[in-house]
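User: Quick one: structure for sequence A, then sequence B.

Assistant: Sequence A:
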Amino acid sequence: MKFTPTFDQNAGVELRADERIAYTPARPETPKPTPVVSRYFSYTLLAAIMAHALLLVGVTAYMSRSISGIHDVNANLEALSDYESRISEKISAQNVAVQTLINETNARLSTIRSDGETAIASSRETSQKLDELQETLQKLADIVQSFPSRVEITEENSTQASRSSDRQGSSLPPPPAGYRRIKGADGSVTYEKVR
């Protein structure tokens, strides 16, 4: 390719044929926007920024509420652990009270058992003594049965009794044990067994 020398208007230098130049075309100038397009674009951009800001404020409020809820849940969990510890303390106190009551009941039962064994031994001794007393009473009843149920004192007996009582200083002899004296309207005296 043959190059013809031309005059560079920009540099004011003449170029030779054997030199190569890199040509970069000049950028076309962008047309300046008209004021109407510029205002519409700025208002749209401002509205988008405001919407984005409002969205960020809403998200921040929601996250703040969520974090506050999480703190409330953590506080409730801590209160729940305190409540759990109070319940476990009360249960252990009740357990100690129940164990104490069981031990006291066992002690009372052992005392009652020993008292019962003592009472059984005492009742055996008492039953033996009652058997002996019953035998004695039976012998005594047999002796009393051998006496007549009514003893009448006739005039002969009463005159003999008055003579003997005059000697002894009393009018009638005392009644035997287990009998009572009955004086009749005619002056007769009888003795009756006391029941």
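Sequence B:
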Amino acid sequence: PPFRFPISTKNGKEGDTIEIAVIGIDTRGNRKRIVCLPKIDNTPPSIKFTRPTADGLLLGRTFDVEFEAKDRFGVKEVRLWVDGSPCALDPNSASKRCTEKNSWIAKVGPNYPLKVQLPKNYQTEQDILLTARAIDNAGNFSKIARLRIKIDPFKPEIFIRSPGQGEVLSDSIDFIARITDNQRLKKVEFWVEVGKKKIPLLTRKKKDLVSDITLIFPERSASTRFGLGKQKFVVYAEDESGNQSTSTREFRIGCGDSTDCPLDQVCHRSVCMVPAGLNQPCGPGTPCTVKTLCIKSSAPFCGSNKQSFCRKRCNPGNKYVQPQTCGSGFFCDKTNQVCIPADGCDPLSNKGCDAGKQCILVDDDAGLCYPNGTVKDGDACSQSCNSKGNCRQGSWCALDQSTGRASCMRICDTKNPTTCAKGLKCVRPRWGFGGGTLNIGICKSSP
């Protein structure tokens, strides 16, 4: 064990250097001498609180403490106790009662700052006693410094009223929050977090605050100021005791897709909108409901007054896939694959079409009025709203399965074969429409 030799310095002068020599001899008579030259320091350091500044101040459960600690030869550390720990009365005590519970140590001068966070059992407003001592480099303890303060353990409460959690918004947003506290509020801030960027909205300080206040910040250019996508609204509040609270609310500016919108709305150009229904007008500012397409069409089909409507999607079919029916009065447009209104004409009587046009079937029960052309029967043709390439009145541009080419063919009524010229027979072909049985045939030479 180490050898201890008590040495009194009471008769020495403060600051004097004394010589202490020690000679060690082992069992074989070997000797060694060492010398040290300490200074005498019997004067304890001094200490006082500089923060909090006075007795009776109201503080939160977390607060800052600073000191003015002085000593001729330097202060080693400052110790702080809460509510009269026995350690403060006898710092050198080895008693089990001196557990250092609720104690803090500061070693960084000149202010020896401490961040005190009281345990959770401080749950009511109450007075507490702060006790502090300084220890110098010689181990001398200062006299006790005391400060009595009041503790307010209650943080401000924040209730965000708007926007709603996960709400999808556009340019107009009202940021609303109610903040309450058992003491007067000292500071309130609103801001929006966009990624790692903080965009300030509102700051209110003590002179504009009370213990219960509702604040509103209207923003009318949100997409320009914050951008599109997910954002976070943050409210910060601090009371006079220094208690701090933060509350957040996530929202979205502009929708990413229709799943971000209410059930009765769709996402259109990053905005949730009530869509137009089937066969209703649509446009850049009016989207269509799901499974429909906004497309321009005219009535009659070959008219010049084209307007946009929400049309049902369809599949015109091919030799492998049966076509989808669009319902009475509509046909499946092969180009856009949507159901387009027919002209409501009769192909055999040509009723429903203006002069110079004829009714050509495009589905089992849907016909369109195309302008008459000049192409003769048997010649190659095309079918469009431009008369060039169209067949003459009474003939259709149909695909000849035997040749694989489209040519003009005279149509006839299979129930009235005499509609064909002499030497021709009314033959019912396999029409590539909806698949129904039609009474429309093609006049062909008798075999």
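Confidence is low (pLDDT under 50) at residues 94-98. The first helix runs from residue 86 to 89.

User: Thanks, that's what I needed.
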